[in-house]
């Protein structure tokens, strides 16, 4: 299947913008005081109040499945704590899953993997394509969110997502985290802990992983650890054939 | 005839009293401001425009990622959550009192946390 025309155009535009940004960044590094790199300003530091998310940043995650232990769910628990996912559901199929652990086995070789699966923060997100209200949206820095103010709970996005990353809240909630509003009748998914990332922190799952199997950072910043590792090491996008250019990459699968 | 007179008198009483009753109307909301004096705008402006302020803020915050806006629901809570119930909802709750009086549906707090006590639960390792 050939790529849709707009996507190809988009890509070349993007690589041009990317190159321009890199050129700008090196100029910026020279201009800044010694020891203070522009990357730190654009990357991990908290964004100043009033400053919007920037398309110079593309948040991404690298998950090393060779380090991820089967049976460990520290990331899932940390996600639930941080995002206030604490409701008791009548039917377990109704529970929200922003991140879940999956155990896989290659039937031919017997090799086993364990990995966390979450919203892949697609560059071309099908959930955004199908949403009839515009509630599903991608922020400038690549984080895909649901604008619950206008989500009507139709669940088209849940059907469209190839990664089963989204959940619908089925019941009234009362114990939300003040920084993570969520409620009945809206679809939700992993936000990369947007409330933490905007303060310059790591997502809760990344911070909680005892094996340091998850790495979070700015894929557009050539000096970030994640950009350097994806440039040098072999990484895989799940269902790369869909050409969604995922923000989450895996190793060892 | 006597019955007729009585009925007429009763009717007249109702008609005469009606305007008085109407002006008494529903009692005005009894608002208690727990931390007065630090509102982001004068009271008349807040009364008329708080919904617009919050609506613009919500779009900028969610869609553009702009943090630290002047108007925020968490900001409302800081001053307006009741010290007794911890909430802006419920009997005597700052938001609920007025919205019930004005018969305007209030659904911000279906998703946003309406209690002040939960405000510190931020981050696994803050
Ligand atoms: S993984 Fe699913 S929910 Fe996340 S951006 Fe892609 S299509 Fe949307
Ligand atoms: S459930 Fe909400 S976010 Fe998903 S497609 Fe429908 S309106 Fe859009």
Q: Which labels suit this protein?
A:
heterodimer; A: 253 residues; alpha+beta; Alpha-Beta Plaits; disordered N terminus; B: mainly alpha; 5 helices; 0% strand; globular; disordered C terminus; binds iron/sulfur cluster
Architecture overview:
The complex is a heterodimer of chains A (about 250) and B (about 130). Chain A is an alpha+beta fold and about 250 residues long. Chain A has two domains: about 1-40, no CATH class; about 55-250, Alpha-Beta Plaits (2-Layer Sandwich). In chain A, about 25% of the residues lie in helices and about 15% in strands. Chain A has eight helices and nine strands. In chain A, the strands form four sheets. Chain A has a three-stranded mixed β-sheet with strand order 8-1-9. Chain A has a two-stranded antiparallel ribbon with strand order 2-3. The two termini of chain A are about 25 Å apart. With about 130 residues, chain B is mainly alpha-helical. Chain B has a domain at about 25-105. In chain B, about 50% of the residues lie in helices and about 0% in strands. Chain B has helices at about 1-25, 45-65, 75-80, 95-100, 110. The relative contact order of chain B is 0.11. The interface of A and B includes residues 50, 137 and 194 of A. One iron/sulfur cluster binds near residues 154, 156 and 187 of chain A.
- Total count of helical runs of at least 4 residues of chain B: 5
Helical proportion of chain A, percent range = 25-40%
Oligomer: heterodimer
Shape of chain B: globular
Task: Describe the secondary structure blueprint for this structure.
The complex is a heterodimer of chains A (about 250) and B (about 130).
Chain A: H1 5-31, H2 38-42, E1 59-64, H3 74-83, E2 99-105, E3 112-118, H4 126-130, E4 136-138, E5 144-146, H5 156-160, E6 167-168, E7 187-188, H6 194-197, H7 204-208, E8 214-218, H8 225-232, E9 248-251
Parallel strand pairs in A: 1-9
Antiparallel strand pairs in A: 1-8, 2-3, 4-5, 6-7
Chain B: H1 2-24, H2 43-64, H3 73-80, H4 94-102, H5 108-111
Bound molecules: iron/sulfur cluster (2 copies).
